[in-house]
Design a protein that fits this description.
Protein name: GNAT family N-acetyltransferase
Structural class: alpha+beta
Family: Belongs to the acetyltransferase family. RimJ subfamily.
Organism: Pyxidicoccus fallax
Order of helices and strands: EEHHHEEEHEHEEH
GO molecular function, one term: protein-N-terminal-alanine acetyltransferase activity
Number of domains: 1
CATH architecture: 3-Layer(aba) Sandwich
InterPro entries: Acyl_CoA_acyltransferase (IPR016181), GNAT_dom (IPR000182), N-acetyltransferase (IPR051531)
Length: about 200
């Protein structure tokens, strides 16, 4: 399987990779290990979310979505372990990629609870933002978080995201509509008017 995995991005401690469909069991293990951690902040999931079949299909779709410039989902693997067997410690994504006059995307991310507080998410998102603004030539990234999620707010602030608003009843999470803080970051050159 390792031959099918090529990091899209590499940081000091991480490889950010698209995983092939035959890595579905690894993605499932990551989600099962974090079920209690992710459930309170995740939208409702499909009935078969916790199955290898779901993830095999989803990973194949992720590759197609990236190929067609619709979205990009990457998994975080420790750089000091073999690509074919390293545990998944998080994921990051750019979804709802909009071209034309908008050139924007929504930023999403999650980290295994056992790796929190070590700067991994800031490291991964910094690389993804650089890629989004550089290689992908996006102009604007949006990221939203629950008002009480102070860890997420701190990560976004470190990365230069600015609060732009507050959306009431924005997203259905854990069976109820939840408010969200809306943040965004503009490509550095664009912020100065050079792009």
């Amino acid at each position: 399987m390792a031959s099918n995995i090529t990091p899209l991005l590499t940081t000091e401690r991480l490889h950010l990779v698209q995983l092939p469909p035959d890595a579905a069991w690894r993605v499932l293990a990551y989600h099962e290990a974090n079920r209690e951690h992710f459930d309170p902040v995740s939208p409702d999931r499909p009935a078969n979310f916790f199955s290898v079949t779901y993830w095999r299909t989803r990973l194949a779709q992720d590759r197609e979505d990236f190929r067609y410039d619709v979205s990009l989902r990457l998994f975080l693997l420790p750089r000091d372990e073999p690509l074919g067997s390293a545990p998944i410690i998080g994921n990051v994504s750019l979804t709802q990629i909009r071209r034309g006059p908008l050139q924007s995307a929504d930023l999403g991310y999650a980290l295994d609870h056992r790796y929190e507080g070590k700067g991994y998410m800031t490291e991964a998102l910094r690389a993804l933002c650089d890629y989004a603004f550089g290689v992908m030539r996006l102009h604007r990234l949006h990221a939203n978080h629950l008002p009480e999620n102070l860890k997420s707010a701190a990560v976004l602030e470190r990365l230069g995201f600015a609060v732009e608003g507050y959306a009431r009843s924005f997203l259905r999470i854990d069976g109820r509509w939840r408010d969200h803080v809306l943040t965004a970051r503009i490509a550095p050159e664009t912020a100065e008017g050079a792009r």
